[in-house]
Design goal:
By secondary structure, the chain is mainly alpha-helical. The protein is built from twelve helices and three strands, in the order αααααααββαβαααα. Helix content is 70%, strand content 9%.
Amino acid sequence: MAHEHKSNNIKVAFFLNLSFTMLELVGGLISGSIAIIADSLHDFADSLALGLGWYFERKSEREERNERYTYGYKRFSMLSALINAIVLVLGAVYIFYESIRRIMHPQMPDVKWMIGIAILGVILNGIGAWKLKSGKGLNSKVLTIHLMEDTAGWVAVLIVSIILLFADIPVLDPILAIVINVAVLVFVFVKLAEVVKIFLQRVPKGVNLPLLEQKLLCLDGVERVEHFHVWGLTEEKKVVTVHIKTKDLDMPELQALKEAVQQVFEALNTEHITIDLQSFSDYRHNLFKEYQDRLQVLDEKARDLALQFAEEFYHDQHGTKAEALERGITKAEMELRNL
């Protein structure tokens, strides 16, 4: 129900923005104001972004995982957030260009039409931003910035148009637009950076990977932690994969260890956890399986010690398996002689 409410909020914001874009375009044509027509094109881009946001939110909420998207469609909302941020940046570039052009060639707009459309713009975009402000997802946040940008822009237009009723200072309009644009771009780049980090599977903010690994190593039965990965499926949901080398444990002990590992990640709000358990002694023997002829000439104690040292050398990336094994055998023989 909460997901449906979130999609409906984006839907309302989309239709409000699209309706206002159409009214703005008609008003610009009637008044002959090129400024209003240009802004209607910018608002059309906003409407497109909101439409994509609505579509992707619905798809991410309703579609189940399948053989093509095994994690489901939750990241589609992240794709929407990325597209929206890019549209905002492109829109900002256009506004900068138009503002600088108007500073160089000032022109007085139709002030009465500016006031009327600005009031309507503040109301409709304000309602849209209010409908989305409760959203916690990154997509909803980017869409909210979209509408807050428009609302702030129309407040600026309203203020400037009122000033222009009493003073002939047309350059105020583009100067104020540049100030607002700079503020909007700061927020956009922060959100765009968050989206890119998630797509690059960076460790999510607030996740202390070394601390989690240390907690795993402190569990009874754990020998080594390898291939430990944590990344964000979305801004809220995380995915964890970990390979753990265990001591020689029976089935009940392995099950208890697996439950203990899951508890370590309990506070992460995970979408999926993959835990791979493997006996450390089995792993060590299988690692040098092709060198059994070389190991058979050693007695049992020397063989076990050689395998231990060889695995350590190989794990620390000190040469190939064959080189690590020879170093392990040499070290084992020296250790036994010293005894």
